[in-house]
Amino acid sequence: MSLRLHNFGGSVRPHLPAAMLAPGMHSEGDGHALHQPVLVLNASYEPINVCAARRAIVLVLKGVAMTEEENGHFLHAARVAMRVPSVIRLLEYRRIPHQSRALSRKNILLRDRNTCQYCSTTLPSGELTLDHVIPRSRGGLSTWENLVACCHPCNRRKGNQLPHEVNMKPAREPRSFNLHTSRHIMRLMGHSDDKWRKYLFY
Ligand SMILES: [Zn+2]
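A: This is the predicted complex of the input protein with zinc ion.
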């Protein structure tokens, strides 16, 4: 597949160092535009990720991705003016490994949709912790299958006990975060952005 470097749209210059953009970067309208989720497509148009608009802009300016859809906001920085993307597509095909994604706090919270798996309360990331379903002190491992999002009160209540000892079972059986799971999450998020739909439902 040939690179379509000419197709960056607007006045964006692909050779511009992305770093120079960061300090004075702002967008018109509400300042949340740069934090809005952007759908990332593989070169094949397959949805593979979601990132913040700020990161998406850097990828576009670096010449790694191109804008497929815009979110209606306009970005002004040093010598750049461009429309904030809603969907970007990588210019080079990226092989997505079959093994599951990196185990991280962020990805566990994403998988569990920021919802405590014991009391089903949805909270901001900062108010959630990770609970070992089988406590480490009882031989539990730090794996996708043994870590769940948990609020602090439930975490304290459960302590070092096994789920059946305190009658606290995770709402959903924890599984590894595979591409199917992430597509499901992307679909949920995509409901708020009509421009995502044609890429997510295919
Ligand atoms: Zn809870």
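The chain has a mean pLDDT of 79. The first strand starts at residue 26 and ends at 27.
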